[in-house]
Amino acid sequence: MARRAIVVGASVAGLLAAVAVSDAVDEVTVLERDVLPRGPAPRKGLPQARHGHILLTSGLNAIEALLPDLGLRQRVLAAGGREISLTSGAVMLGPEGWFRRWRHDSHPLLTCSRDLLDAVLREAVLDRPRIRLRRAEAVSLLGSAERVMGVRITDADGAEEDLRADLVVDASGRGSRALQWLDALGITGIREEVVDSGVVYASRLYRMPEGAEEFPLILVQPDPLDTTPGRAAALIPIEGGRWLASLSGTRGAEPTSDPAEFVRFALGLRHPLVGRLLSGAEPLSDAALSRSTRNVRRHFESAAVWPEGLVVLGDAAAAFNPVYGQGMSVAALGAQELRRELAATDVAAPGVARRIQRAAAKAVDAAWSLSSSQDRWFPGVLGDSPTCADRVLTRYVRRMTKVATSSYRVSVAMCNVTTLQENSSRLLRPSLLLATLNGPVLPPLAGPPLTAAERAILHGLDRTGGAVGGTGADTDGRIPSSG
């Protein structure tokens, strides 16, 4: 008997889910209501593509495992994207000061436009023989509280049709109607968590100046424990010799789409580095704005009743504040769990859907802990207040972050967690506890750790008349990996 699966949504989560399930069924139908572009181009249903996206190490590894013949890294690099080491190629101001750039490369990040990444994945996934794309919108689930048997769709001409399947994967993103669909089947009481700091994003493309092809990734983060709203910036090198500048502010400090205010906002951050770079750079686009940034988690994995034949992955299950760059990687890790479970049992076997949902929730746990625990502290946040345990853990992590600015070993341990390669419980290992209690091993940096060549680029662009302080590093901006 032929096995069929339906995946709702053709974004990163949906494409990877289609690959994960394709080895276990005879046919996968991917439903997408948008007309998908050929090549890297914007599409209506993905407005967040205009903002900065970074593929974390865990996400890159998961995609390479799901699509070993794709060569995602090589394709993105060939198209002009960058691979940047988090420990040596990023200039980052965290809540406890500037992080050092170590000589040892680790935790590679893939930077490119979201349009490029989606195009590479679409080409690789939709060309597979068992996977077909259909332009249609899923409007409800077929079946009962015991088993989902497919979806009812509305096609591009407005006609309704019932599609049957042994497994339905909802990967339709933040706008998922999974809760309403389940409610219609009689499944209610699924817990939903929301932590909303009111973050607004404004992003703009700039031409990268000549000679800046290897310029580092710049990340200026807010201090969540400050009493003022948080402001942040990321200056991300992408294909086409461009910088993608993404600015963000929590409730009370939101950026606007006014181009005249863009650089002024960047200059008002905890450090004006990004603003100084942009003050002399050539803008290539207007500023794009987004307000769809709240942390939302739907605990499908702990539902009292869960139907056979349904799995919810990606942003449909948990969506995060984009500032933490976790969404694509969590989607990839969830797809890995989907493949792992289906490799061990039949797609229609009793209990398999619940097992997949629970396995995928483990990747969500790590990302949710990082994003929600930070955003809970900003003024005006909507959601649960920090608990006593949150306060104790936050004090410990803050001290560890301060140590990480001067210790390579502690910095790597934290990078393992922030890139979702290890669970945050690993930060409680005795050796890290001792290092944290002992405190920083080097004095704090007085300014961003830029090389002489990078400082020259900065000074060539800076139209503000500002000066950047000393680097606190050696002549090339990096220090040995021995802390």
From TrEMBL:
Keyword Oxidoreductase: yes
InterPro entries xref list: FAD-bd, FAD/NAD-bd_sf
Domain called FAD-binding: residue spans: 5-345
Gene Ontology molecular function: monooxygenase activity
Pfam families the record matches: FAD_binding_3
Annotated signal sequence range: 1-24
Record's keyword terms, sorted: Monooxygenase, Oxidoreductase, Signal
Annotated spans, Disordered: 464-483
Gene3D superfamilies tied to this protein: FAD/NAD(P)-binding domain
PANTHER family: THIAMINE THIAZOLE SYNTHASE
Name assigned to this protein: FAD-dependent monooxygenase
Biological source species: Streptomyces gibsoniae
